[in-house]
Amino acid sequence: MKKQLFLYLAIFLIFTACKKNDIQPADKAINEKVNALYTQYGKSNEAVYNQAISGDLFSKDLKKVLEDAIQASKADIEKVKNSNHPDEKPLIFEGAMFSSLYEGYTSYTIKSVTVHDKTAEALVEFEYNMATPKVTWTDTIHLINTEKGWRIDDITFDKIGNSKDLKTRLTQFVQSTQQ
């Protein structure tokens, strides 16, 4: 009887110890979302103008803010084109939209992922080595877990940038087109 009890206890402990690995699928899914962001939209703002904003990548809230900003920019481009001064510069996205540094980055590494129930933060370290000295910084990608999986909800920029976060940057951009 004692041998059976020890056997059942050992099996129970093995399964409960394996529970700690449940976080890995979330980390993997979050890493995939961050990599998708910087693969699809990272190095050039042309991508936001030339393709639909992904509902699989961004939260509904961030997707709407992005679409509003893109629409405002496209409207300003048309307004300038049809004005008496079509050679003026319209309000467009300049610099790297999804990164703190205006010039963008030459490489990035996901340093850590922290999951808190239905939200997560991914710390992403960037490097820009096209200048001397090279510049490194860390942005924080905020994600939410929806019924359809993890979605990027915002990006908090490092202090080297001129904006606090992506949603604020986009909201200010839309407001600037309305002045």
Automatic annotation (TrEMBL):
Domain of life the protein comes from: Bacteria
Protein name as catalogued: DUF3828 domain-containing protein
Lineage: Bacteria, Pseudomonadati, Bacteroidota, Flavobacteriia, Flavobacteriales
